[in-house]
Write a structure and sequence with these properties.
Order of helices and strands: HEEEEEEEEEEE
Distance between the termini: 95 Å
Radius of gyration: 26 Å
Number of helices: 1
CATH superfamily: Lipopolysaccharide (LPS) transport protein A like domain
CATH topology: lipopolysaccharide transport protein A fold
Oligomer: single chain
Number of strands: 11
Shape: elongated
CATH architecture: Sandwich
């Protein structure tokens, strides 16, 4: 039977020497000779199961953004988000929830571009059922409370529906404007005695 412990010592010694050589090379290489990571579109930070909350001037919750995964990229100061959920709040109106498969946040979080099965839902009230809109992409300005798309949009509320191409949404004024090729069906809700 061979004694392997005597053969492992030289291999371990070579591994330690290789690690020290790598460390010395990186420690002695000047900063200007190292590649600039900001030039490549590589993430410098990753967040899992995060939530961002924004308050208005009175300290009331304005919107909340959460998602299971975010990657930040230093080259253009953007972030990519998987399965984002943005909920916008107003004192005098039901909350509006936006969901999508993906999103990109531009610099300072001023612009949020939702893609991949975008859904906009205004919660139901005592007088009206929930309003649900679907589109392929949506450009959202969360601080301004507005959004827009140039893609086809489908909206349903109860049995009523409308479709069109392009839309402008203003959560502050509670408006949803379709821009072209609009068609739909309105079904009046029955008034309960």
């Amino acid at each position: 039977m061979k004694n392997w412990s005597g053969q492992l010592f030289p291999i371990a010694l070579l591994g330690i020497i290789a690690a020290l050589t790598f460390w010395l090379q990186s420690a002695l290489t000047p900063e200007e000779a190292r590649p600039d990571r900001t030039l490549a579109h590589e993430p410098d930070a990753i967040a899992e199961n995060f939530e961002i909350r924004r308050l208005d001037e009175q300290g009331q919750l304005k919107y909340r953004l959460n998602a299971p995964h975010l990657q930040h990229f230093p080259d253009d100061d953007s972030s990519e988000i998987r399965s984002p959920r943005l909920i916008s709040y107003r004192q005098d109106a039901p909350p509006v929830t936006l969901t999508a498969g993906q999103a990109i946040i531009t610099t300072q979080g001023e612009n949020l571009v939702l893609t991949d099965k975008v859904e906009i839902t205004r919660a139901a009230t005592g007088r009206a059922p929930a309003l649900v809109a679907r589109t392929a992409t949506l450009n959202v300005l969360p601080n301004a409370g507005t959004a827009q798309t140039d893609q086809p949009v489908e909206i349903s509320q109860g049995a009523s529906w409308v479709t069109g191409v392009g839309a402008r949404i203003d959560n502050n004024a509670s408006t949803f404007e379709l821009l072209s090729q609009v068609r739909g069906q309105y079904v009046a809700s029955r008034v309960k005695p």
